[in-house]
Amino acid sequence: RLFSILHTSSERVSKALCSCDQYHTVKNVFPAMDGIASDVAVGVKRSSDELLSGSLYNSPNSSVTANGGDSKKLRVEDSMDSPPSRVIHIRKLPNEVSETEVIALGLPFGKVTNILMLKGKNQAFLELGTEEAAVTMVNYYTAVTPQVRNVPVFIQYSNHKELKTDSALNQRAQAVLQAVSAVQEGGSPSSDTAGESVLTPAPSPVLRIIIDNMFYPVTLDVLQQIFSKFGTVMKIITFTKNNQFQALLQFSDPVNAQQAKLSLDGQNIYNSCCTLRIDFSKLVNLNVKYNNDKSRDYTRPELPAGDGQPPVDPSVAAALSKDSTSLLGAISPLSAAAAAAAAAGRVALSGHSTPGGVLLVSNLNDEMVTPQSLFTLFGVYGDVQRVKILYNKKDSALIQMSDGNQAQLAMSHLNGQKMYGKIIRVTLSKHQTVQLPREGLDDQGLTKDFTSSPLHRFKKPGSKNFQNIFPPSATLHLSNIPDNVTEEDLRLLFSNSGGTVKAFKFFQDRKMALLQMSTVEEAIQALIDLHNYDMGRGHRLRVSFSKSTI
Questions:
Q1: What angle is formed at CA 117 by the lines to CA 184 and CA 417, rounded to 5 degrees?
Q2: Which residues of 323-338 are buried (b: 16+ CB within 10 A; e: fewer)?
Q3: Is 283 exposed, middle or buried (0-12, 13-18, 19+ CB in 10 A)?
């Protein structure tokens, strides 16, 4: 109660002081052609090429206004002006919103450790496990308008650094939180009635998706890029049954399927149409025989297209990436307008065979970053082909991945992460390839060609590495450890990278281990420094992010 009273007073003072300048007119946060933003018109009828702004990803319409005004343009708070905190303040929630719906906003970004619902004020506070997870969440929702029950909500950092709640007064919220935490950690929810009625363990990594009111086409690529925000999408099969478009989509982990179902079930891909109806499938694994526009196994790119089916043309990925550069910005899912345009065949294909997976990375620490460090970090999510640090803007770099899917994956996981003390920004580039310097021209080592690197993690079709792609985390997975190396050796090695080792655990065979640093930033630094480290006896240490905790 005391917390609620203090918070109410704080909010009133804050609103009185800031009512004049705490809002700004909404901008198009999706960078056009590598970062040039343009204004978004609110309440203006859109042309057919814009294909109705997507409810999942686009700014709310003009009927929703800030501060209760009915004639003002929509305004959005700039959370980046507040210092980061792992506590997120959420406002303008719809009436009767549930704890589960609020928790679902934070689930894709990491563990949710506390929640406080202020239902009388249509507000909530969400505490994430780490500040890095909160930063990633706020960055993502800066580009993607968060919605609960199709109502836009407002998200910003809280002035509080942690939530201290009265468990007796917040009993139901805590029960739901415990149920969610149990599922995230791979266990079973508490038997508490409140938690059990809301959430049960994910029975399968495979989701069955039905599209209701399908006014616009929905393709396999649209689904992949929407659902990939919640984890690694391994396989998709699309089909029509009872005159309805349906799909089976397999994640690498049932927890990712649970998070996607919580967040996306009942949402519209485009305004007022193409509604997602999501259930768990009875299947636990999909058998994909062909890679074409009806089915796809992302772990086996060598699969044939099948009789009568068009193969997956690499130029399609290039066209989608090129067309959506001005729309995607910091998010993983493909913009609704770009997706629908592609599905309707209006994207002009260039005919080039280049996959078009080039990323623009900005806000780098120009005194520390090197092509090798970018190769190592981005190589966790795909096979980096070339890296170019821009000569006249050394805090920015172009990174060419093997294909557009790998570029999307790297962008969704690394945008908003800290590297060498700075929060990096990752977007799709307008470039199709990274050009090497002309022969004889000294570019000070700013451009590197990694095409033939032996360190590519995904060059082998069907590699298990496809199943072990996780967001940056404080816990690292170590492998290829020699028999003579001890826990003390590894603790000392990783401490010397500039961080603090909080926990360590050998696997039974002692060839692999889990090692937990104190922060995600320290883990990123350690991975950059120590992946492929020479441990002697011909052993090169392999380092990747883990979904586990110790």
A1: 50
A2: bbbbbbbbbbbbbbbb
A3: middle
Ordered alpha helix ranges (H), 303-398: 314-323, 325-328, 336-343, 371-378
What is the distance between the alpha carbons of residues 261 and 282, in angstroms, rounded to a whole number?
Answer: 15
For the stretch 77-126, pLDDT in tens is 444 457 899 999 999 998 878 888 888 888 777 788 899 988 889 999 99
End-to-end CA distance of the chain: 35
Which amino acid appears at position 275 of this protein?
T
Tokens 């240490």 — which residue?
Answer: 541
Closest-CA residue to 406 (of 364, 447, 459): 459
- How far apart are the C-alpha atoms of 173 and 178, rounded to whole Å? 9
| Cβ atoms within 10 Å of 213's Cβ, excluding its own | 11
CA pair distance 167, 521, nearest whole angstrom: 32
C-alpha 311/C-alpha 302 separation (Å) is 11
The rounded radius of gyration (Å) of the Cα atoms in the chain is 23
Question: In the prediction, which pLDDT does 421 show?
Answer: 93
Predicted confidence at residue 10, as pLDDT, reads: 42
Say whether 504 sits in a helix, a strand or coil: strand
Residue type, 340: A
Distance in angstroms (rounded) separating the CA atoms of residues 188 and 124: 26
| CB atoms closer than 10 angstroms to residue 492 | 11
Task: Find, among 267, 258, 293, 147, the residue nearest to 212 by Cα.
Answer: 267
Q: Angle 487-495/520-530 helices, nearest 10 degrees?
A: 100
∠ CA 304-310-312, rounded to 5°: 65
- Local structure of residue 98 (DSSP, 8 states): -
3-state secondary structure of 297: strand
Q: Determine whether 392 is exposed, middle or buried from the number of CB atoms within 10 Å of its CB (0-12, 13-18, 19+).
A: exposed
Average pLDDT on 505-512 reads 91
Least-confidence region, from 36-50, 305-319, 480-494: 36-50
- What pLDDT is attached to residue 142? 79
Q: Is the four-CA dihedral 137, 142, 145, 151 of positive or negative sign?
A: positive
> Roughly what angle, to the nearest 10 degrees, separates helices 99-106 and 131-143?
100
pTM for the whole thing? Answer: 0.44
Among 98-107, 219-228, 461-470, where is mean pLDDT lowest? 461-470
Pairing between β-strand 295-297 and β-strand 233-241 as defined by DSSP bridges? antiparallel
